[in-house]
Amino acid sequence: MSTRTAVITGASSGIGAATARRLASDGYRVVLTARREDRLTALAEELTAAGHEALVHVLDVTDRAAVDAFARTLDRVDVLVNNAGGAIGTETIATADPADWRTMYETNVLGTLNTTQALLPRLVEAEGTIIVLSSTAGLATYEGGGGYVAAKHGAHVIAETLRLELCGQPVRVIEIAPGMVKTDEFALTRFRGDKDRAESVYTGVAEPLTADDIADTIGWTVSRPAHVNIDLLVVRPRAQASNYKVHREG
């Protein structure tokens, strides 16, 4: 496999799918991973029709044996985009369901650990780049988000620690921390399918970020010269000054 190859987790929708489109347009062979085969297949067909090379691999990043088996199918990895994750619920710490916290931790933290460990040898060989999609929730806390905040703090620490541990190795570790991004599923999942509550997150916000905005940011960081490492890039819409200060019109 002589073509530059990018592996994207959580590629079936949102930021993952947008990143796949961006990196494919930049000339990468993209390997699309997620749990929903139908969506991955549709995206791969779209990219193939546009003249790009896309491979599909159904994968649950929390299943370490499956991740290891997936890694053995790849001869080359230049970019790993650890995007799989998400938030569940808005309960306080006093009332939260530990099962929700466990799911968020396993996906956002252990999923990133699993794929990074499994693909690291290929990334070293290719002098590649590891992208960790964290969140501004990994940098500052807010009420009603304890489980997600804790998980994204974990993802942030993975990126920070890995960069220290790989110092001297030909691998970049880049963390992208998005703020308010409006996608089809993130808020809907967080509010357990309540469409009205999900939509209310963005009420009055003229221009929240889009998945394409984050994909564009990822594409830019990856395209820097090999000696340039963008350690941490926080991306918010202009209307958002912090996790809890957002300008809303009307």
Q: How would you characterize the overall build of this protein?
A:
The chain is an alpha/beta fold. Helices cover 42% and strands 16% of the residues. The protein is built from eight helices and nine strands. The strands form two sheets. A seven-stranded parallel β-sheet has the order 3-2-1-4-5-6-7, with helices on both faces. The chain has a two-stranded antiparallel ribbon with strand order 8-9. It is globular and about 50 Å long. Residues 4-184 form the Ketoreductase domain.
Topology (SSEs and partners):
Blueprint: E1 5-8, H1 14-25, E2 29-34, H2 37-49, E3 54-58, H3 64-71, E4 79-82, H4 98-126, E5 129-133, H5 146-165, E6 172-178, H6 186-190, H7 195-200, H8 211-222, E7 232-235, E8 240-242, E9 245-246
Parallel strand pairs: 1-2, 1-4, 2-3, 4-5, 5-6, 6-7
Antiparallel strand pairs: 8-9
Helix pairs in contact: 1-8, 3-4, 4-5
Report the structural category.
alpha/beta
How many beta strands in the DSSP annotation?
9
Shape: globular
Compressed to H and E, one letter per element, the order equals EHEHEHEHEHEHHHEEE
- The helix tally amounts to 8
Q: Give helix % range.
A: 40-55%
Strand content: 15-25%
Oligomer description:
single chain
Please give the alpha-carbon distance between the first and last residues. Answer: 54 Å
Overall pLDDT score: 96
Q: Mind telling me the C-alpha Rg?
A: 17 Å
Keywords: Oxidoreductase
Pfam family, one: adh_short
InterPro entries: KR_dom (IPR057326), NAD(P)-bd_dom_sf (IPR036291), Sc_DH/Rdtase_CS (IPR020904), SDR_fam (IPR002347)
Protein name: SDR family NAD(P)-dependent oxidoreductase
